[in-house]
Structure prediction request, 471 residues.
Amino acid sequence: MENNRIAADVQRIHLIAVCGTGMAALAAALKDLGFDVSGSDRNVYPPMSTFLAEKGIPIHDGYRPENLAPPPDLVVVGNAVSRDNPEVQHMIAAGLRFCSMPQAVNHFLLADRKPIVITGTHGKTTTAALMSWMLHTAELDPGFFIGGILRDFGSNYRLGGGPFMVLEGDEYDTAFFDKGPKFLHYRPAIAVLTSIEFDHADIFRDLNHIRSAFDAFLRKIPSESLLLAYDEDPDVADLIAGRPFRIQTCGGHPGAIWRLSGAAVEPPWTTFEVARRGRPYAAFRTRMMGRHNLRNALSVIAAAHDIGVPLAAVQRALETFGGVRRRQEVRGVRRGVTVIDDFAHHPTAVRETIKAVKPFAGGGRLIAVFEPRTNTSMRAVFQDVYPDSFDAADLVCVRRPPLLKKIPEGQRFSSQQLVEDLKKRGKAADYFTDTDGIIAFLSKEAMAGDVILVMSNGGFDNIHARLLERL
Prediction:
């Protein structure tokens, strides 16, 4: 594939599939840098269309060759489009220069910056957001490019003017012409590896295939860089052994360089203590819920120490961190019922999120509402694993996967089977064919003091606002 290199004299840039979260952020960042930016996508609608319009970026609804007239100096191709896309075909036939999203990020956003790259199967977005807020609190004016909206900034990107740029390092593929993970395009000054589990069953065959992707990332880390790695994941421990760069382990094992040495939940706060190299380091408190978020915080504390951020600034950042939209986000309270939105979809994320939220339910029930929507969760690969993930919930509502036709018939996940398996475990559980049924059920079932935790990586038919309205 030729022409996927970025020339020095770029002025006009067009983005294909611009309404994805990352592509829209890139379009806005390029606009902020002074480029003439346009984009196209299928089914353009709010909030992304509104966001781009407010930035003054014209968006074409649908893919057509004429969207590339007059010819742009560079086309950025999102990984949601294939080679047979009409604009892609015209781009190739016309010999236009093009690149992938991470190539553009690397070229336009990382020049003369020190990348802090957050990777791993779980916790990337929250860890990257907290890292960004910590640097901001320390007045280091960071930039960031993250796959979620940071409530403290109201955005998922920021150019910043300081030395650091925080990136969420995604293991998903880059583009139709580059099937390698996005994170291979970045050379981190500091890297975080939170966990390694099988996910993205649409592009990875098994856990070993996932491991090979992270191995390739580790091979590209410069020798002078620092890797912060979670020490309780055996796959992480295996992959980091013998690497030539600096490594500091973070977690709960006594031998970890950075270790959680104690934690207590006193809603709305979680307080915890950290030890460094076996000695007490400091105490912190945060509004984030769950031990998994304390592990995320631990890597940020370790990075801050390495950078030289004053301890008081790190403590202040943890206390004031507003979190990320769709990550344990309280959407509202009606009739004493709290509705929380979360992005959890992988079995581990579902389990940890439910465990995290449970103590904050007080004397009420924790009602877990789950929509399998990702290319992995709609497959049967985790059919036998999901039942264990809901043990801490008092009531479970499971929706039929909304996009099940995308999955070959013999590989499809069964929400009905999950509900049957949950009942065999003694768990109160119900199956629903659509979102309307869940709303009708919960509007009658929920009582004051209950917490309804809605988990999906999609919009879930706006269930949160509709449920609050019914309540």
